[in-house]
From TrEMBL:
Residue ranges occupied by any RNase H type-1 domain in the UniProt entry: 1-81
Source taxon at top rank: Eukaryota
GO MF annotation, one: nucleic acid binding
Pfam families: RVT_3
Protein name as it appears in the record: RNase H type-1 domain-containing protein
Annotated Gene3D superfamilies: 1.10.340.70, Ribonuclease H-like superfamily/Ribonuclease H
Length: 222
């Protein structure tokens, strides 16, 4: 039902802005094909939503519904996360400017280790394991954490991220550094040299070189 509500709200906003031609994109196959008229709406809870949206369609010269796979529907996920983080005043319109990044995504991603010394996924892991939030978290922070945690799971004490194709992804930065430093390359080289070797092996994260320098300082053999 949440998807139907979001769809109805979006179409209503388009009507208020006097849009005459509209393309609606969604990653829920059932809803898109029901609104497109390919599938019949049988769920009694969804019928009123379907009827309402069909009535809204009359306000447009042209309106169409298109299915987009979830992993290609990144803008919706980004806006949903943003809405959970912002605390806007009721009844007040807010303009959101969207700008294209000037750098590749991997150049601006979250580092492996944060200022508090904990890995970036620490809060997610603690929430999944114990159901607890960071001490300083406000309600918006808690809501954002729940949304993030929905994409992760813990299996045999290992945190995995669920991808769109159901593949489980595991963060291996620490293991890669240890292997590069002590096993595969067989040398205790400096941070620059080992970072270069890790790059050649096909791995990258934004704080790779500084993380490796910290790892090297903790090595008893160096």
């Amino acid at each position: 039902m949440a998807e139907y509500e979001a769809c109805a709200m979006g179409i209503t906003m388009a009507i208020k802005h006097q849009v005459s031609r509209l393309k609606v994109f969604g990653d829920l196959v059932l809803m898109i094909y029901q609104l497109y008229g390919e599938w019949e709406t049988r769920d009694a809870k969804l019928v009123p939503y379907n009827v309402h949206i069909m009535a809204l369609k009359e306000h447009f010269e042209e309106i169409s519904f298109h299915y987009v796979p979830r992993d290609e529907n990144q803008m919706v996920d980004a806006l949903a996360t943003l809405s959970a983080m912002l605390q806007a005043n009721r009844g007040k319109e807010m303009t959101i400017h969207v700008r294209q990044q000037t750098k590749m995504a991997h150049c601006q991603q979250v580092g492996e280790v944060e200022i508090d010394g904990q890995p970036w996924y620490h809060d997610i892991r603690e929430y999944l394991k114990k159901g607890v939030y960071p001490p300083e978290a406000i309600e918006n922070d808690k809501r954002s954490l729940r949304r993030l945690a929905a994409d992760f799971l813990i299996s045999r004490a290992i945190l995995y991220k669920k991808s769109a194709n159901s593949t489980l992804l595991h963060c291996e930065a620490q293991e890669i550094m240890e292997e590069a430093h002590e096993v595969a390359f067989g040398t205790h080289a400096n941070g620059h040299a080992l970072a270069h070797k890790i790059l050649q092996a096909g791995y990258y994260w934004s704080k790779m070189e500084s993380d490796y320098c910290q790892h090297k300082r903790r090595c008893m053999k160096c």
